[in-house]
Backbone:
């Protein structure tokens, strides 16, 4: 079960990043005005936000019990805070990703409620951009870029 959920978390990372880039590609061109907010922008926002929520649930499942590494970290939290990698996963990665999901959700929700198309584009672009920035800063890039069921996929990073 653990390896399946960890693999899902890894694959979802790429789906979330692709959805973020697509959502920004749909919203940034409208920031300057002159474009109507369409169903495509709304769908891009919904897909991005939904994927971030799914990724958060999967990550929390790992954090709160499925990951043997996190169980060890949480069992001895004080000592873990003195180790860079343990602190990264226990505090920085987890807290930062929750913030990124909140930003994505704000972008989707506030753009839906915004009056006027240009305002929708600006709100969505701002929050989606901040969300993506936080994610990019807090993804553990030193880990293999694609790991499925405990096996690093050859030729895919490091």
Residues:
């Amino acid at each position: 079960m653990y390896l399946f959920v960890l693999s899902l978390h890894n694959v979802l990372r790429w789906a979330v990043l692709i959805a973020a880039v697509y959502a920004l590609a749909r919203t940034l061109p409208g920031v300057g005005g002159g474009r109507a907010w369409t169903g495509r922008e709304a769908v891009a926002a919904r897909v991005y936000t939904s994927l971030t929520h799914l990724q958060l649930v999967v990550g929390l499942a790992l954090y709160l019990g499925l990951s043997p590494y996190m169980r060890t970290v949480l069992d001895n939290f004080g000592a873990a805070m003195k180790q860079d990698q343990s602190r990264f996963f226990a505090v920085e990665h987890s807290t930062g990703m929750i913030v990124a999901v909140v930003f994505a959700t704000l972008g989707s929700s506030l753009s839906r409620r915004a009056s006027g198309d240009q305002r929708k584009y600006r709100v969505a672009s701002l929050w989606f951009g901040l969300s993506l920035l936080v994610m990019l800063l807090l993804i553990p890039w030193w880990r293999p870029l694609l790991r499925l069921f405990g096996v690093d996929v050859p030729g895919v990073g490091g």
Residues 2-137 form one domain. Helices lie at 2-27, 39-66, 68-75, 77-80, 84-113, 117-138. The chain is about 75% helix and 5% strand.
